[in-house]
Design goal:
This protein is α+β, with helices and mostly antiparallel strands. It contains four helices and eleven strands; from the N terminus they run βββββββααβαβββα. The chain has one domain: 60s Ribosomal Protein L30, Chain: A. The strands form two sheets. Strands 1-4-7-6-8-9 form a six-stranded mixed β-sheet, covered by helices on one side. The longest helix has 15 residues.
Length: 204
Amino acid sequence: MSDHQAPLVHGRASKYLDRHFDRQAMKILPGEFYATTEDEVIVTVLGSCVAACLMDPIAMVGGMNHFMLPVKAGDRDPDVFYAARYGAAAMEYLINNLLHLGAQRDRLVAKAFGGGRVLPGMSSDVGGQNVDFVRQFLRNEDIPLWSEDMGGPFPRKVYFFPHTGQVLVKRMERIHNNTILNRELTYIQEVTGQPMDGDVELFS
């Protein structure tokens, strides 16, 4: 495999063998993105965050990002890991990596997921802001949004197969622990630098 064709990963994303799908899988977390030419699956779990799955169906190149907030207030963050937590940077980085792997911009199509209102008691709808952002970004960039599953009161687990464009979504309507919600609240507080407003109670 040449360097040009090598999968591109950013962050702490980890690869494992998914025995159910019998293929390599890459799990990404908030602030991460992954682009590949391989016949594998990209996996993430979303609460109020949004993941955009982009692909060039002719070149069979695809990738996914996972961002927490639409844009960063103030100066652009020079650190890719922190910048990719914001939608504007996450979309830019993913598109550039897909083009590096051989995709053509005018052939890119998208599917988008997440943006749930999963943090009870918050006065601001972070998920809704992420949903509005990704839809507007794709319109501005003339990238067709082929399908979506966004909004609602529940987290989601997403499996994206970049070779075929297939996406499987599991709505996690019953959560037996507060891991996802605690993680999202911690990440959002970290990137904003301040506690979130509202009386937030995470259910267990």
